[in-house]
Amino acid sequence: MRAFFLLALIFVSLGCEEPRGVPDNALPPKAPASNNAAAEAPVDSPPPAPSIPEIFELSLDEDLVFNFNANASRFHMYSDGLLVHFAEPGFWKYTQEYSRPFGEAVEFEDERGRVLERRAAKLNVPLRNLKSAIIKVKAHGVSSGQRLQINVNGKMVGVQDLERRWQTLEFEVAEGLLKDGENEVLISLRNAGRVGGKRTYGLISSMEFVGEQPPTTSKSLWIELPEKSVFEADSEKTFEIQVRTADSLKTAETIVHEGKVRADLSEWGGEVVELQFPKGASFENARIAMHAVESAPKWEPIENAILLVIDAQRSDRLELYADTRVKTPNMTREGKHAFVFRNNQAASPSSPPSHASIQTGMIPRVHGVTGDKGQLKSDTPLLSSQLEDFGVFSAYVGNNSFGMGRLRKAGKWSKFVQPVSEGKGIDCTAVNEETLKVIDEARATSKRFFVSMLPFEPHAPYRFHEGITEKYHEGGWGPPVGKFADGYLLVDIMAGRKKMSEENWSQLLALYDGEVEYMDVCFGALVDALKERGIWEKTAIVVTSDHGEGMNERGRVGHAYGHYHELADVPFTVYAPALLADGPVRLESPTSVLDIAPTILELMGAPVSKKVQGESMLGAMKKRASFPRVVSSEYGRSYGLRARHWRMIVNYDGSEELYDLIKDPTEKNNLVETDAIGLRYLRDSAGFFLEFRSDWTTSNWANASDSVQNPAAD
């Protein structure tokens, strides 16, 4: 036993001995003794950081956004069914009548309602999956013996007594009467009374469409999506967004990360869709943002600007805009310096309203020139006046006194020259010559200059130009058209007094197309003259038109007969050699001639009047992108709304037309009865446009499809 313990002692002693032959300083230092067993245990490596979802790696553009809070009134709200609150601003998206039947919203007997100023009013409401329904109407009869009648899609569904107090009446809609899409609801009241001293047929607070099954949607939004966009909001939980198009219903899944949710909407880029948000989804500060777009570096103000308004110029006759037989080599050659807004709209199909909109940046109803005899309202700021106040030599040189004559006294002009009135002829060469004289005069005073040019080509009379016009017609030039077509001939053609053969129509088209090419020659001469003076690089030329020209597309010639593409689609091209050398840059989002005045002002570094309704396109030019928009045109009681994908036209009699401009660019197939998605999108915009257009400015309303802030409640 003693031997065993001796051997064990020797073993332990050897095991604890330091290795021999190794210097002390080559050994690792000994750790101090510790009584903490946990401290001596091996330490686990920290868990890997959670990966960032791919969609949150995307950078979003802070300027190219659609803000949900600002556009709260555009959402369609659901409770037991679609719920229409008449006293709220969002109500207006359901009424598109030009002569507004509803008045102000008032507080009456502890309830808010909207005044019905006429005996009857029509609403258009989007409904889905309702075989039958109960319509609940909360209203006040105001007068004794009142009766409320409801018609749906042309058929009466009920008449009930409405007392002089707030009450909710229910109307049963039989199965098969409601459409899956747009539905017309007619509200009729029998007797007039008074509220607050004002005559009214009654007050209506709300209307709800309740089906057999409660909706799963809390709210929905019709919107045109950019090519690449993301839904983003503050939320701790994911939810599904239903995305409805004309052909499908799909789901966009949201992904949550650090208190935010995002969903990729790029699958539906360029389409008009309905976004449906589920009940129970809780989120704040929502927006739809485009993928981040790199912006050009800061641009210095352009020294000089020329606004070239080519009268009656269709954009589809210019090579920068369309595949056309018409040759415009000078405009095309300088396209390397051009920003081309491909879907620009005239403010009106008639000269006086549209010229006033070009020069003011306002819609006709606001500036006052709503028709051919209208006059500009006092205190309306013209582009020339704002530039004169900024120290810029501002001039007009043009041959259309009908369009611009009434703006002479209303604006500030250093020079106002009308060559044709001075016996110098109607030709664009005379306009060029007088323009260059004005420019030389401005330069002699060492001032920056702005010139608004208005040549008459290609407006009627269409003239024959040797070496040009014959390229567009191979036959003879006999009557009734010949080599000259004035306005009297166009009137006779429309009245049927001049019979037109196929060859005659070819002659007329050739005369117009020849005028377009001839105007391009004048454009080239103007650019050459600026280059000779050494100021081309310091000057921007903005090309546009007041309206297009009909060429028998609908059995009509001339203009002022509607809001179709041949009249509404006009150029908006910014030639800016100081800003661009790798063009043309083509921008697809719709613009309006209202955008021209603020764009020129910002290009020249001048302040823009707060009354202006158009938007400067300088930001779009810098980013070469913009968020989808809806823009308007109007003439009398008719109006048109243009989105990238769609055009809606409302005629004098209130009838509607809807065209898919991607599939049907010449507008042959009216889809108003068959495409509820496109129709609802533009009806929403139409309701707000009609109600708020007189108060709309860029500070409170970006365009007809996007509010900078909510329209003020009544």
Please write out the topology.
Blueprint (H helix, E strand, L loop, with lengths): L1 H14 L21 H4 L19 E8 L8 E3 L2 E5 L16 E7 L2 E6 L3 E8 L5 E8 L6 E6 L2 E7 L4 E8 L7 E9 L3 E3 L2 E3 L2 E8 L6 E8 L4 E6 L5 E5 L4 E5 L1 E3 L2 E5 L7 E7 L5 E8 L12 E6 L19 H5 L4 E4 L2 E2 L5 H10 L3 H4 L15 H7 L3 E6 L2 H4 L10 E3 L10 H17 L4 E6 L7 E2 L20 E2 L1 H9 L6 H31 L6 E6 L5 E2 L5 E2 L6 H4 L3 E4 L9 E3 L3 E2 L3 H8 L14 H6 L7 E5 L2 E5 L3 E5 L5 E5 L15 H17 L22
Parallel strand pairs: 23-28, 23-31, 24-35, 25-36, 26-27, 26-28
Antiparallel strand pairs: 1-22, 2-3, 2-15, 3-14, 4-5, 5-14, 6-11, 7-10, 7-14, 8-9, 8-11, 12-13, 15-21, 16-20, 16-22, 17-18, 17-21, 19-20, 24-34, 29-30, 31-34, 32-33, 37-38, 38-39, 39-40
Helix pairs in contact: 8-10
